[in-house]
Amino acid sequence: MSGSLQSFFAMGGYAAYVWPAYGVFFVVLLIDWLAPQWRQRRVLRELRGRLARQEARKERPHRNSAAST
């Protein structure tokens, strides 16, 4: 059992190429899964900021109307 498991992990002498390829694949897969969540958080944060600025703009007095009177 130990010999077959060891030969499996050795990948016929190509383990130095195969295991890093698996590692890169899973890292890319994880990033591909997380990227939409990060993007959604960023977009929501930007929208909240825009809405807050828009509300603040509505609440402050207009300079043009004060200057014209």
From TrEMBL:
It is a single-pass membrane protein. This is Heme exporter protein D. The keyword Acyltransferase does not apply. Required for the export of heme to the periplasm for the biogenesis of c-type cytochromes. Its main location: membrane. It comes from the Bacteria. InterPro entries: Haem_export_protD_CcmD (IPR007078), Heme_exporter_D (IPR052075). Belongs to the CcmD/CycX/HelD family. The lineage of its organism: Bacteria, Pseudomonadati, Pseudomonadota, Gammaproteobacteria, Lysobacterales. It is found in: Cell inner membrane. It holds the Pfam family CcmD. The chain crosses the membrane at residues 14-35. The gene is ccmD. The keyword Kinase does not apply.
